[in-house]
Here is the input.
Amino acid sequence: MNIGQAAKHSKVSAKTIRYYESIGLIAPASRTESGYRTYSEKDVQTLSFIHHARSLGFSVKDVSMLLDLWRNQKRASADVKALATAHIAAVDRKIEELKRMRDTLLDLTNRCHGDDRPDCPILEGLAGSGSTHKAAPEKTQYLNDFETVGP
Amino acid sequence: MNIGQAAKHSKVSAKTIRYYESIGLIAPASRTESGYRTYSEKDVQTLSFIHHARSLGFSVKDVSMLLDLWRNQKRASADVKALATAHIAAVDRKIEELKRMRDTLLDLTNRCHGDDRPDCPILEGLAGSGSTHKAAPEKTQYLNDFETVGP
DNA sequence: ATTGACCTTCCAGTATCTGGAACCCTTATC
DNA sequence: GATAAGGGTTCCAGATACTGGAAGGTCAAT
Here is the structure.
């Protein structure tokens, strides 16, 4: 089947499939004489696997390792479990961090009357020197740390 | 003071301060005759404000708006509150998504014996066609959606 | 004069795609 | 056979928010 069909069945967009090929996450697809990529059922399964793993927040690097383990009949399930467990821990840390952020934000917004008067505890809180709420982590982690949720 | 001191006091790295200047988030700093950037107490306050807002997960675009509101004495606190409230909602959505991911991951790892045998429910779950756990959101959101936590 | 700690600019890379331009292939219809 | 729609192809750029590093200028102290 062509890339469009593979995309539909695997739920990975054609654009992204080509991207995965370009970075070596998947092997280059075979081609028709005219240059179209062709995909088998097995290829679609692989793409689905990738889709599921990505939707669970594994990085592309992690997915690459998981694919190796998946294809390696001799792997130990302990290896997979270790990867997954580390990932869960990372996700948990992110959840906690987001909760702290939300609590602080809620605290600030609750104290803001939110009308047309200019004084605003939210801005005062942001301007203030210390944390408005609770101890911050050693190194403040920004949201974009979520780009890579590693161990 | 020079950029290094400003960085130390504001907790925004010198590199990042220059970056903020380059994208127009902050006004270009004044310079000494030899070209060094110089910063006032007020500049440091602004940088601290940015640091706090970023650590609460506001995007740089959001921070830009917050800075405008902060400097505008005629602003309505309702405007700030609206921005903050939308942000809280976005953070909440991300927390829920991460929780769903963690639940699925926990389910898979709990069913994995994690020894040296090759069969592994985690990989089977990733390979399986459907969600292993609960209904997924309409469009699966990847972790890197966290790069921008907007409304 | 030399050292070392700062500062400068500029280019590139990180992670993960996504959009768009310019152009080729297939199939159906007129 | 011409044409149009709806595929496919490649390559470049952009988004996000920085961070690292190279090559070189400045400042204060020894």
Notes: Strands of chain A lie at 30-31, 37-38. Confidence is low (pLDDT under 50) at residues 131-151 of chain A. The two ends of chain A are 38 Å apart (CA to CA).
